[in-house]
Amino acid sequence: MAEREILTWDLYGTASRELAQAVADSGYAPTIVLGIARGGLIPAGSLAYALDCKNLFTMSVEFYTGVDTRLDVPVMLPPFLDRADLTGADVLIVDDVADTGKTLELVHDFCADHVRTARTAVIYEKPQSTIKPDFAWRTTDAWINFPWSTMPPVVRRTGVLDA
């Protein structure tokens, strides 16, 4: 079995506070926190609270289909975010991990022409990521077991679009 990075709920609490502190220490003050669903939703909410930012938006992007299996390219899923809502904002784009970097790159490019500034924050960054996040708590080569996605779903939905 390949090496695993295990993020527990307790360690996640430390990670999210330290990541938020790094953003605050940099002087960056987002007016919008944009979480990439699904993995970035919990980190985005935690960072929004810690940075006292009440504007929390989400974008759904599918890339991973299983452990170490992914689509060729990330795909945005509906409902789609209206770029007009981002106009002139300082946006912190949040995901759980920058693995290939393609998801962060897609969302960053989506925002680029509409926002005043955009920064990226992740719990984990992998060395092979094509985009270097502005803020990362840790770097790892290992597959990461996140506390919110380690256990199987309580109910397995079949034949329904997982949006």
From TrEMBL:
InterPro entries: PRTase-like, PRTase_dom. The keyword Thylakoid does not apply. It comes from the Bacteria. The keyword Glycosyltransferase applies. This is Phosphoribosyltransferase. Gene3D superfamilies: 3.40.50.2020. Residues 5-150 form the Phosphoribosyltransferase domain. It holds the Pfam family Pribosyltran. Keywords: Glycosyltransferase, Transferase. One of its GO terms (molecular function) is glycosyltransferase activity.
